[in-house]
Amino acid sequence: MTMIPSMTSSFPMAPKPFFLLSFFLLFLLLPISSLPSTLNLWPQPTSISWSTPAAIPLSPYFSIQPHFSSHIYLHRATIRYTRLILSERHRPIIPPVINLSNSSLSSLHLSISDLSAPLQPGVDESYSLYISTSGATLTAATPWGAMRGLETFSQLVWGHQPVVPIGLRIFDKPLFTHRGLLLDTSRNFYSVRSIFRTIRAMSYNKMNVFHWHITDSQSFPIVLPSEPELAAKGSYGSGMSYSTRDVKRIIQYGLSHGVRVVPEIDMPGHTASWAEAYPEIVTCANRFWAPTGKPALAAEPGAGELNPLHAKTYQVVQNVLHDLSTLFLDQYLHAGADEVNTACWETDPAVTHFISAGGTHDQILEKFINLTHPYITDTLNRTVVYWEDVLLGPYVKVRPATLPTESTILQTWNNRAKNTKRIVQAGYQVIVSSSDFYYLDCGHGGWVGNDSRYDVQEAEPSDELFNDPGGNGGSWCAPYKSWQRVYNYDILYNLTEEEAKRVLGGEVALWSEQADETVLDAKLWPRTSAAAEVLWSGNRDSDGIKRYAEATDRLNEWRYRMVRRGIQAEPIQPLWCVLNPGMCNLEQ
Amino acid sequence: MAPKPFFLLSFFLLFLLLPISSLPSRLNLWPQPTSISWSTPAAIPLSPYFSIQPHFSSHIYLHRAITRYTRLILSERHRPIIPPVVNLSNSSLSSLHLSISDLSAPLQPGVDESYSLYISTSGSTLTAATPWGAMRGLETFSQLVWGHQPVVPIGLRIFDKPLFTHRGLLLDTSRNFYSVRSIFRTIRAMSYNKMNVFHWHITDSQSFPIVLPSEPELAAKGSYGSGMSYSTRDVKRIIQYGLSHGVRVVPEIDMPGHTASWAEAYPEIVTCANRFWAPTGKPALAAEPGAGELNPLHAKTYQVVQNVLHDLSTLFLDQYLHAGADEVNTACWETDPAVTHFISAGGTHDQILEKFINLTHPYITDTLNRTVVYWEDVLLGPYVKVRPATLPTESTILQTWNNRAKNTKRIVQAGYQVIVSSSDFYYLDCGHGGWVGNDSRYDVQEAESSDELFNDPGGNGGSWCAPYKSWQRVYNYDILYNLTEEEAKRVLGGEVALWSEQADETVLDAKLWPRTSAAAEVLWSGNRDSDGIKRYAEATDRLNEWRYRMVRRGIQAEPIQPLWCVLNPGMCNLEQ
């Protein structure tokens, strides 16, 4: 059935304007270039074929069948996508010109081979989708693959009266099993609502790991049943902490969107906030971070580290880890271990005594790891994720024997491909978060106060660039990582095939010194989309050529669609560029 | 009597569990007033029937401001991050009395914005020379109020007036579109920061979003679409909204460069329109994608331009009319046979520009009776420029954006009044990477060599004016740097600028605030304390509080530090 009688027999005649075109022209008065019809999907599927540019209207009674009422998360996803599909009324900036079928599509049939597959590392997320005049089928191995396919189906729908392409076949599966986003909720607080929105946006982009960097030196926002004082005294306040109920809701929300929630409690460094409840287990807490003429006590303001030589440290840490494993379901538990600062430790007499007796800082860290790692892996039955620093230093590190490769994953953030290679060569699985490509907070100037370096009126000499071009403006990891920079990172660069197998995937990261929920969406999107596509289907076309030029147009459309879906994603170009594809390229 | 805890303290403690440092009580005002005295830390509750008297019903803009501030004062219930500890008076304040000497003063360049404010147990008075100064004082009063049950400090005297008469914000609504609603919000935020000029860069090469009665085709064909243009009614509402907030609206139609969008309606008057901006092996046709310039050698150009300027002067009330004139590109002009003929006959590009200025400048000044504002390029080049004699100093203001203080000095030495928008300090779009597509420069996996830095530290990441201008950079700019006292008199003030290639209303607030607040304070009362020392350290704490207050007022301003820094003043400094 179709609403427009004059269009009743348009398939398979010569292409004529899509019946909604006049509606779009009202919206966009600039001339529409007559481009070959393209489907704007993000991330681009692994394999797609669309024989002729034809589409079919969705029946107003369109449904996804069956409902899988027995699987609460999949059931929620089918309800959500049914609603989205029927209500989104997506208006492409450049609408495809297609033939319209005179029948209509009344359902999408879902077929899942293993409904019981849990959402866990490495779960099969493949799916295939087939849409024809006679019906649409989505086949997936698991509910989580089905959710990816439902997202793809939803992106295929457009129009005030919704239509989907027909004659379409998609086979799709991710290149990497770990496609994540790190959010730091310690430097500044994020409401549960904004975390929900972020997880929702991740599912739009087929991402599957929300790496929740919950605590740090600045605040301890999670309420833990065995250690309630940590949040009671260490959070920013009662409206700014996550209750057990909040955490459960976030995990449930993640499951309904096929997104794992991996918690991180950073330790033994980055723990000044613990001192509000337990000053005795934290060294150098509440000291000024950068004492004049002495080594800094931390990488940034907010100094304080757990004291591995204090017995009570382990009592608190074990309670924290235990609660964490009770609250969070995921196989992974991230325990931080980055940027341990020796000067901070050395403010403690026990530490200086240990060192003067011939001990080393590495031994102190090793003691901490030895007393916590086995607890996490053996008692709590989790795989530990640490930042690479624990193995690679440069200042404090442990011997590889301390970190069993079978139960330890390392997350790299320094030295690009070099550290990735060092980690996999040492036998570890790795998650890639290169700060040179994947740190979304970079290039935003400095945030430390009372900083005279900005007070320069004249041009700076070339060897002292700070504010002028060539200077970092106060940001250690400047310049800003634009979507094109994110998109072009090859996380397997310079690895052998064997080494590449140990790369689980990647995570972009938003450290929140200069961010909170007022600016969250703009910081994350669409740059996180860039990583999402690369981790799902790569950054090359079928000829092996980097596809950043083609991706520009597609990402423009996707950004506008995300905005309509309630994600305040940033524009990547003037709208003129979207309306005039290719005209805003560097090279024609 | 001895200070006792403020009665709302327990309420705040519920909100913030971290220990409150016992700091000397201070008032967080932004921008900091010129002169403030507060004898003892004491405050008085506002009566629930608090009102501002008289209502000035005869002055519609002031009346609206009074209504707005009365509502804000009674409903805001501001919670300072670090609440002041004060003695609380047991009486209450029932009104603020307003006294204005010249109610008829129009909102125009140089209008007196001074005010004085006195609050005591026996009453409070706000005295101002003009309604616009009164609005500044009302804003100050609103910032003095805090608490679930609102209180204001007593024993307080403020005398305040701006250092510069021109305190502006430029918004580019051509590269991407902004709704009227988001422009309203921006003007509102400007008034919170005592800014007084909304420089509306309405058109550019990418779109022509303003519907002009005599030239409706320009927007009909050159805007991004019918939902993305400004009707006459929209423009009037924006101007009215500005007046109600003491903010002038200065329109800019950029020309003769930056005009590709005009070609949708009038292809014959635009050179190089719709050509690819950066042809291989040839000079670029524009500074960025979207090439096209008005052709000064085509007669019809002036017919359209005069209609545009005429409509602009009819729609907009302000004394200033900004006519652009930046970044004229000679390669784009030379795609036109008339231009190449003119050049080959011995003419110069400067002469072509001069012809354009000669045929438009007098029309704006003499016929339309406006002061013209141009970008500095028209005088300083570097590529195309006119002779100073073409630009009468009494009717021309130049806006500088290059070479920091150097160009400011060149302009004032040439006798012109100047508005400062140094891209090194005041361009809010800088440092956000590049936006041009199909750009292989990002595809670098290895560390870059030190002489080819692009993505690595030291590279600009694709942004010509990187690095990002943080609030501290904005705050520390001395726009009078290296000028004599006489030269300084010709500096009207400054404008921060948001060019919108990578911005639209989804990200507007975060791009503007609180960095624009930094400029707003410097242009109002400077960046130095009473000892003449730069006050950026003290300003950090005050700006933190102000940012949170703006957020509560509906402006999605960016945080400048972790909340921990606000709760632990001084601990996040570079030097103790």
From TrEMBL, chain A:
<keyword id="KW-0326">Glycosidase</keyword>
<dbReference type="GO" id="GO:0005975">
    <property type="term" value="P:carbohydrate metabolic process"/>
</dbReference>
<feature type="domain" description="Glycoside hydrolase family 20 catalytic">
    <location>
        <begin position="176"/>
        <end position="538"/>
    </location>
</feature>
<keyword id="KW-0378">Hydrolase</keyword>
<comment type="similarity">
    <text>Belongs to the glycosyl hydrolase 20 family.</text>
</comment>
<keyword id="KW-0732">Signal</keyword>
<dbReference type="InterPro" id="IPR017853">
    <property type="entry name" value="GH"/>
</dbReference>
<dbReference type="GO" id="GO:0030203">
    <property type="term" value="P:glycosaminoglycan metabolic process"/>
</dbReference>
<dbReference type="InterPro" id="IPR025705">
    <property type="entry name" value="Beta_hexosaminidase_sua/sub"/>
</dbReference>
<dbReference type="InterPro" id="IPR029019">
    <property type="entry name" value="HEX_eukaryotic_N"/>
</dbReference>
<dbReference type="GO" id="GO:0016020">
    <property type="term" value="C:membrane"/>
</dbReference>
<dbReference type="Pfam" id="PF00728">
    <property type="entry name" value="Glyco_hydro_20"/>
</dbReference>
<dbReference type="InterPro" id="IPR029018">
    <property type="entry name" value="Hex-like_dom2"/>
</dbReference>
<feature type="active site" description="Proton donor">
    <location>
        <position position="339"/>
    </location>
</feature>
<dbReference type="GO" id="GO:0004563">
    <property type="term" value="F:beta-N-acetylhexosaminidase activity"/>
</dbReference>
<protein>
    <recommendedName>
        <fullName>Beta-hexosaminidase</fullName>
        <ecNumber>3.2.1.52</ecNumber>
    </recommendedName>
</protein>
<dbReference type="InterPro" id="IPR015883">
    <property type="entry name" value="Glyco_hydro_20_cat"/>
</dbReference>
<feature type="signal peptide">
    <location>
        <begin position="1"/>
        <end position="34"/>
    </location>
</feature>
<dbReference type="Pfam" id="PF14845">
    <property type="entry name" value="Glycohydro_20b2"/>
</dbReference>
<feature type="domain" description="Beta-hexosaminidase eukaryotic type N-terminal">
    <location>
        <begin position="41"/>
        <end position="156"/>
    </location>
</feature>
<keyword id="KW-0325">Glycoprotein</keyword>
TrEMBL record, chain B:
<protein>
    <recommendedName>
        <fullName>Beta-hexosaminidase</fullName>
        <ecNumber>3.2.1.52</ecNumber>
    </recommendedName>
</protein>
<feature type="signal peptide">
    <location>
        <begin position="1"/>
        <end position="22"/>
    </location>
</feature>
<dbReference type="Pfam" id="PF00728">
    <property type="entry name" value="Glyco_hydro_20"/>
</dbReference>
<keyword id="KW-0732">Signal</keyword>
<keyword id="KW-0325">Glycoprotein</keyword>
<dbReference type="InterPro" id="IPR029019">
    <property type="entry name" value="HEX_eukaryotic_N"/>
</dbReference>
<dbReference type="InterPro" id="IPR017853">
    <property type="entry name" value="GH"/>
</dbReference>
<feature type="domain" description="Glycoside hydrolase family 20 catalytic">
    <location>
        <begin position="164"/>
        <end position="526"/>
    </location>
</feature>
<dbReference type="GO" id="GO:0005975">
    <property type="term" value="P:carbohydrate metabolic process"/>
</dbReference>
<dbReference type="GO" id="GO:0016020">
    <property type="term" value="C:membrane"/>
</dbReference>
<dbReference type="Pfam" id="PF14845">
    <property type="entry name" value="Glycohydro_20b2"/>
</dbReference>
<dbReference type="GO" id="GO:0030203">
    <property type="term" value="P:glycosaminoglycan metabolic process"/>
</dbReference>
<keyword id="KW-0378">Hydrolase</keyword>
<feature type="domain" description="Beta-hexosaminidase eukaryotic type N-terminal">
    <location>
        <begin position="29"/>
        <end position="144"/>
    </location>
</feature>
<feature type="active site" description="Proton donor">
    <location>
        <position position="327"/>
    </location>
</feature>
<dbReference type="InterPro" id="IPR025705">
    <property type="entry name" value="Beta_hexosaminidase_sua/sub"/>
</dbReference>
<dbReference type="GO" id="GO:0004563">
    <property type="term" value="F:beta-N-acetylhexosaminidase activity"/>
</dbReference>
<keyword id="KW-0326">Glycosidase</keyword>
<comment type="similarity">
    <text>Belongs to the glycosyl hydrolase 20 family.</text>
</comment>
<dbReference type="InterPro" id="IPR029018">
    <property type="entry name" value="Hex-like_dom2"/>
</dbReference>
<dbReference type="InterPro" id="IPR015883">
    <property type="entry name" value="Glyco_hydro_20_cat"/>
</dbReference>
